[in-house]
Design brief:
By secondary structure, the protein is of the alpha/beta class. It is 36% helix and 24% strand. The strands form 2 sheets. It has a 9-stranded mixed β-sheet with strand order 14-13-12-11-7-10-9-8-15. Helix 5 runs parallel beside helix 6, helix 6 runs antiparallel to helix 12 and helix 10 packs across helix 12.
Length: 370
Amino acid sequence: MVKKITTLALFLNLFLLWSVVMLAQQQPVRIGIDGLSHDHIHGLLKNYKQRSDIQIVGIAEPNKAKARALADRYGFDMGIVYDDLETMIEKTKPEGVVAFNSIYEHLSTVEMCAPKGIHVMVEKPLAVNMKHADKMANLARKYHIHLLTNYETTWYPTHYKLFEMAVKNQDFGAINKVLINDGHKGPVEIGCSPEFLSWLTDPVLNGGGAVVDFGCYGANLMTWIMQNEEPETVTAVLQTIKPEVYPKVDDQATIILTYPHTQAIIQGSWNWPVSRKDLSVYGKEGYVTAYNAQDLEYRLTRNVPTEEIVVDGFPMVAKDPFHYFASVIRGDIKVAKTDLSSLENNLIVVKILDAARKSAAEGRTVRLKK
């Protein structure tokens, strides 16, 4: 009889534990926001009220005029807006923080969050330089938090189809050249907010102009394609085509990466006549180009006609960065070291950007591998 009661009690305890876990997984993940100056914040605020995966519990933003303007537009309560990150964390107890501040401030976000066990996702790139990136990585590892980097292009279905064809299946043979083009007419020209422009065009707060803003996309995608293999050399040319608009930073960047059998050309610009984010991979047997999120073209030498397809299916469970962040925090998604958002990939990205700026400044090729 005693044995039966003990077994029943054990079963009930396990059931209660399972119920608690399931209830926790059903609850939205508590998210805080550090800064509102990055214009990508609109991607989160535009539909946050309809989301069940996350709950915005607090916002750290000293610029109350900016906060009120966004509150009026998107309907959040100014009562959740605090002057600084420390106060916001103390009052609201978020499980994760998303950073929409300057690249330079990413380090301070992690310095505040990591010791408290709060996970962090920053907008691209990870850090303003390797000194900051190494400090952030050390903190993330010491305190066992997830430190993710978000790129718009991570959520392009075409990129996963391209990766499947060119990298996983090697449909085009060994990859020998990759071309990556990113940018638009310029942040001033497309109407970015004054708060965004104040640091985006600052060589300290952003670390550069187009070389950082759009060069990071190519570095991220190429590192993914090469599965975290670092390039042997980095060569870059930076120019300011419009000094009257961007007197402090470059607005035109070309970065060449070399690997033992592969070359990548990354072109980031604030001078394109149209907005673009396209990626082409070439091999001995053909090529594939992702023109945008949906349109993909490929050609095989054994199949002369060019094929054009629309890619709709997205292979990841999470369909956007905030669902992804919540799923990672819950443990529903495991981040692989080679993933586009991973810390390991993005440390290489910052290393490439540092080398590109050094190459351009010194007028020489920088060798990463000796």
